[in-house]
Amino acid sequence: VRSSAASDVYKRQTRDLFDEGLFVNPVVTPAVAPQDTLIRFSLMATHTQEQVEFALDKIQKVFRKHGIIK
């Protein structure tokens, strides 16, 4: 996958997570090398168990949509 194509994939995944109510940050080139592109999730001690479970449900939903998990 070309780096711009990979960046587009991560941006779509990030947008889908946002649409599900999660704010995450894509880390793409030129900030990182193309093979190191990632989505940054931030978890704090002040998040409740319900918020963590909500986030995990939405992450699973989006990752399934994009074929990352089954």
How does this model look, in words?
With 70 residues, the protein is mainly alpha-helical. The chain has 2 helices and 2 strands. The protein has a two-stranded antiparallel sheet.
What is the total tally of β strands? 2
Largest sheet report: 2 strands, antiparallel
| H and E order | HEEH
Spans of at least 5 consecutive residues with low confidence: none
- Strand proportion, as a percent range, falls in 5-15%
Q: Which structural category do the helix and sheet elements fall into?
A: mainly alpha
The number of helices is: 2
| Strands side by side in the biggest sheet | 1-2
Distance between the termini: 21 Å
Shape: globular
Helix content: 40-55%
- Rounded to the nearest angstrom, the radius of gyration is 13 Å
The average pLDDT is 89
Secondary structure: elements and pairs:
Elements (H helix, E strand, L loop, with lengths): L2 H17 L5 E3 L10 E3 L8 H17 L5
Antiparallel strand pairs: 1-2
